[in-house]
Amino acid sequence: MKVMILGSGGREHALAWKFAQSKRINGLFVAPGNGGTKAFATNLSDLDPTDSAAVVNKARELGIELVFVGPEVVLEAGVVDALNAAGIPAIGPEKREAQLESSKAFTKQLLLKHNIPTAQAKIFSDVTTFNAFIDTLQGMWVIKKSGLAAGKGVLESSDREEIRSFGLQALKDDSVVLEEFLVGYEVSIFTVSDAKTYCILPPASDYKKAHDGNAGPNTGGMGAICPVPWLGKDMLQRIKEELVAPVFKALEAENLMYKGLLYFGVMVTADGPKILEFNTRFGDPEAQVLIPRIENDFCTLFEAVAKGKLHTQTMHYSDKVALGIVIAANGYPGEYRKEVPVRVQFSNHDENRILFHAGSTHKDGVLVTNGGRCFTCVGFASEHASARKFAYSLTKEVSFEGAWCRSDIGANLYNQN
Ligand code: AMP
Ligand code: GLY
Q1: Residue 149, C-beta contacts closer than 8 angstroms, at least 6 positions apart
Q2: Could you write out the DSSP letters of every residue in 21-36?
Q3: Which residue's CA is the nearest one to ligand 1's atom 16?
Q4: Is the per-residue pLDDT at 414 higher than 70?
Q5: Mean pLDDT across 46-67
Q6: How many other CB atoms sit within 10 Å of the CB of residue 63?
Q7: Cβ–Cβ contacts within 10 Å for residue 86, how many?
Q8: What does the alpha-carbon distance between residue 375 and residue 395 come to, in Å, rounded to a whole number?
Q9: CA 286 to CA 337: how far, in whole Å?
Q10: Whose Cα sits closest to atom 4 in ligand 2?
C-alpha cells in the first residue's frame, strides 16, 4: 500500500514510523516531513500540504492509496474535501466537520444544543453587545477566539479590562466565546471514527505549560504520558457515557459525517467531566506516546476507516506505558532561532526508547533545528518510573545550543494539577 502523510511535526514522525512497520507498505511519503522521517520515508519537501490541488496531483502521480492528515490547518484548508472528490481515500474530516476544531463558536452551539456537559458560555460577534456584557463581568472567566490560533487564542483571567482588550482584538476578524472557568484536571481522549462507528483509544495527557510545576506560558505541549495514571476506570467510564457517546449521537443527528481522529479535550471537575474543546486530529505530543502503544497494523486499520469498515477491526494495545519529553529551542514558545546544528548520539535501535523529530531538517547535509518544539524523546516500559528514566536518558543524547526541556514530566503521577 502506498501512503502519504501530510505534516512535519513529531506527530507525523510517529505516524510515519508506525506505517513504516506495516508489512503491507510499499511506498511511504511525508509532505513536507522532517529530519527524522527522511531516514525511512520519502520527504516531499516542496509539497505544501495545505495546497489541495498540489496534494491531489502528487497523490495521483505517485499512485497513493491512503492519505493521512496530521495538522488542523490542512483540514481547515479543505484538502480532505478535494481528496474525497478525487476518489483518493483520506483520513481526516472534511471542512464542515473540521469546524469542530476550527470554530469554537460552532462547537459550543452544538454542545449546548445537545445538552452535552461543557463550560457555560456566551458567543459574541459584535462589539457593542460584547462591551455591554463585559461591563457586568465579575470573577474568573475564559475568553477564546473562535478560529484556529495555534494555542494562542485562549485567555484565562479575572481582570475585566484584560478580557475586554483580548476580546476586542479578536472581534476584529472573528467571533469570541466567553465561558465559565472550570476547575479540575485535564485529560485527552482520542477516538477514531469512520462516520458509522467509533472506537476509543487509551487516554493520554499532555503538559501544556512551558515550565516545571505547570508554570509559565501555554505551549503546544512539552511532554505527554499514556495511559494517564491519575484517571481512574470509573471516571473513564463516565467520560465514555456522558461525553463520547452523546457527542457521536449529536454528530449523527446533525448529519456530520466524521471520518478520522476526534480528540476530546476534557476537564474533570467536581461536577463531573466536561468538554473543553475538540481537536479534529491526533494531538502533538500525545500521538508520540499513544501510537507506539497501538499494536494494530496501521495500513489495515486506516484502510478500514477509509472504507467505513471500522467495525471489522479489533484494537490491540501494548501493556507498556509511554512517556514523552519535548526538547525545545531557546525562546520557545516565544521567538526562537532556527538552523541551529544538532548532534544526535542515539542510534535508534533500542526497544525502550524512541526519538521522534519535529522541528528538524537537513541543511547542506547537517541536521539543524527548524521549529520551536524540535524533538520528542519517548521512553517505553512496563511502569511509569522506568519509562520516565528511559525518556530522560534519551534527552541527554540530543544536543544543540539552547536546547531545553521540562524536568518534571511524569514526576508527580497522581496529582498532576
Ligand atoms: P482550548 O483551546 O479551548 O482547549 O483551551 C486551551 C486551554 O485553556 C485548555 O487546555 C485549558 O487548559 C484552558 N481552558 C480552556 N477553557 C477553559 C475553561 N472553561 N476553564 C478552565 N480552563 C480552560
Ligand atoms: N497537545 C495539544 C494539541 O495537540 O492540541
Answers
A1: none
A2: T-TT-SEEEEEE--TT
A3: 276
A4: no
A5: 98
A6: 8
A7: 15
A8: 9
A9: 25
A10: 283
**Is residue 72 lining ligand 2, measured as CB closer than 6 Å?**
no
At residue 217, the pLDDT reads: 87
- What does pTM read for this prediction? 0.94
Q: What residues have CB less than 8 Å from 385, skipping those under 6 apart?
A: none
Q: Which ligand is nearest to the CA of 140?
A: 1
Residue 207 CA to ligand 2 centre (angstroms): 9
- Rounded to the nearest angstrom, the distance between the alpha carbon of 328 and the centre of ligand 1 is 23
Distance between Cα 349 and ligand 1 center (Å): 38
Distance CA 190, CA 15 (A): 15
Residue 179 CB less than 6 A away from ligand 1: yes
146 CA to centre of ligand 1 in angstroms: 13
Cβ atoms within 10 Å of 241's Cβ, excluding its own:
11
C-beta 286 within 6 A of ligand 2: yes
CA-to-CA dists, residue 118 to 114, 276, 355, 409, angstroms? 11, 6, 36, 28
Q: Which residues contact 31 (CB under 8 A, 6 or more apart)?
A: 4, 5, 6, 7, 43, 44, 45, 47, 49, 55, 58
* Mean pLDDT of the 150-157 span: 82
- The number of the ligand nearest the C-alpha atom of 151 reads 1
Please name which of 395, 43, 92, 136 lies closest in space to residue 261, comparing C-alpha atoms: 92
Q: State how far the Cα of 383 lies from the Cα of 347, in Å rounded to an integer.
A: 24
Residues 6+ apart with CB under 8 A from 299: 1, 3, 19, 22, 24, 25, 66
Which one of the ligands is nearest to 144 CA? 1
User: What single DSSP character describes residue 182?
Assistant: P
Ligand 1 centroid – CA 99 distance (Å) = 17
Cα(402) to centroid of ligand 1, in Å?
A: 29
